[in-house]
Amino acid sequence: MSFGFIDLAKEVLKASECPLSVEEMWEAGCNQGLDEKLGSSGKTPIRTLSARIYVDIKNNMDSVFIQVSKRPAKFYLKGKDINPEKGIPESGAGRKKSKFTERDLHILLSSFVCTDEHFKCMTKTIYHEVSKREKSGKNKWLHPDNEGFIFHLIHIR
Fold first, then answer.
1. Which of 24, 27, 88, 140 has the fewest CB within 10 Å, making it most exposed?
2. Mutual orientation of helices 22-31 and 5-15 as an angle, nearest 10°?
C-alpha cells in the first residue's frame, strides 16, 4: 500500500501536541520529509490534503480525524488527548462576535446616508424576501434591498 495524504496527516497529528490546520499539517509534513514519500506531483497539495481529510471525516464512520474548530479549521486525532496548555483555539479568538444581521444594519445605513453632508440621501428598506410569482425555492431573496433617492431643488426663473 502506498503512502497517501491521509497517512501524512495521521503521522503529523500523532507527533503534534495540539490540533493543526491543514496548512500547518502540510508544513510539518514537509519538515519531516513526508511530502517526498507521497509521490504526488500536483500543484495544490494543501488543497488535496484538505479535501482528503474532509472526505474521510464525512464518508468514513471510523475516521481517525475529528474537526475541533471551524475558523480556522483545525483537526486532531480521535481519542488523543489535547494538551491543556495549547488547548483548542476558539473561532475568532480575541474578537467579540456581533449578532447583527444585515437587516439590523439597514437602520444604521439609512441614518448615515441621510445625515451625512456628502450623501443627503433618503432611503427605504424593501423587504421582498418572498415572491408568489415563482415556484418554491426560486422565490426567496437572501437579503433585503436598501434603495435611496436624492431631492434636487431646481430654481426656475
1. 140
2. 90
C-alpha cell at 144: 433585503
For 117-148, the pLDDT digits (tens) are 888 888 887 776 655 555 665 655 566 677 88
Those residues whose C-beta lies under 8 Å from the C-beta of residue 13, and which sit 6 or more positions away, are 20, 25, 65, 75, 76, 77, 80
Q: What span, in angstroms and rounded, lies between the C-alpha atoms of 77 and 55?
A: 15
Residues listed for the chain: 157
The three cell numbers locating residue 129? 424576501
How far apart, in whole angstroms, are the C-alpha atoms of residue 113 and residue 118? Answer: 8
All cell numbers assigned to 98: 456581533
Place of cell 444581521: 101
Q: Tell me the CB-side half-sphere exposure of residue 55, using CA atoms within 13 A.
A: 8
- Provide the CA 124 distance to its chain's centre, in angstroms: 31
Residues 5 and 25 sit within 8 Å (Cβ to Cβ): no
pLDDT in tens, 5-19: 999 999 999 988 889
The grid coordinates listed for 2 are 502506498
